[in-house]
């Protein structure tokens, strides 16, 4: 996203985000496990405002898209984003506060992906799919063309174990 020495809070944040994302996408299995995590930014102007919007985007198994959004107000030098409970906006001038929120969220992506996979398995079981049909669906997710929508081999193992336990509970 940026190069050279950081000159302001936004530049610092972009540099740290580049490093964090690189750690989550260094190998394909890890990239899939973090839902093809990526970052995009855009600038917009209105009246006397100049805002940079930073979006961290990733997918859950099957391809549902999730996003973390941070705004940076160039005039005030402040970042704003939704707090963890999604009920209030946090405003700070410290890139480390933004990175703490992002880091916490990103560390939770693998767990969120597993939770989504479990919900999908529950839905398939609720639809009356047989074990072989369910395993075929999991195999499709393993081979999904859409990188972030794929599942990793670890997610596949967890999904199979969850499905076996789910069927044991139903029968």
Question: What secondary-structure arrangement, pairings included, does this model have?
Answer:
Blueprint: H1 9-24, H2 28-33, E1 38-46, E2 49-59, E3 65-73, E4 78-82, E5 89-92, H3 95-107, H4 109-126, H5 131-142, H6 153-170
Helix pairs in contact: 1-3, 4-6, 5-6
Summarize the structure.
49% of the residues lie in helices and 22% in strands.
Can you walk through the features of this model?
The chain has 171 residues and is an alpha+beta fold. It folds into 2 domains: 9-109; 110-170. 49% of the residues lie in helices and 22% in strands. The chain contains 6 helices and 5 strands. It has helices at 9-24, 28-33, 95-107, 109-126, 131-142, 153-170, and strands spanning 38-46, 49-59, 65-73, 78-82, 89-92. A 5-stranded antiparallel sheet has the order 1-2-3-4-5, with helices on one face. The model has no long low-confidence stretch (mean pLDDT 89).
């Amino acid at each position: 996203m940026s190069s050279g020495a950081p000159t302001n809070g936004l530049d610092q944040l972009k540099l740290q985000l580049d490093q964090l994302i690189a750690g989550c996408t260094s190998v394909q299995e890890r990239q899939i496990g973090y839902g093809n995590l990526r970052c995009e930014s855009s600038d917009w102007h209105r009246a006397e405002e100049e805002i940079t919007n930073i979006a961290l985007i990733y997918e859950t198994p099957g391809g549902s898209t999730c996003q973390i959004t941070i705004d940076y107000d160039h005039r005030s030098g402040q970042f704003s984003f939704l707090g963890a409970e999604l009920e209030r906006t946090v405003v700070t001038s410290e890139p480390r506060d933004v990175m703490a929120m992002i880091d916490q969220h990103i560390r939770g992506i693998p767990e969120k992906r597993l939770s989504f996979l479990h919900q999908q398995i529950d839905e398939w079981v609720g639809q009356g799919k047989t074990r072989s049909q369910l395993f075929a669906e999991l195999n499709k997710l393993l081979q999904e063309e859409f990188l972030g929508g794929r599942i990793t081999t670890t997610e596949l193992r967890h999904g199979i174990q969850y499905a076996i336990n789910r069927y044991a509970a139903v029968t």
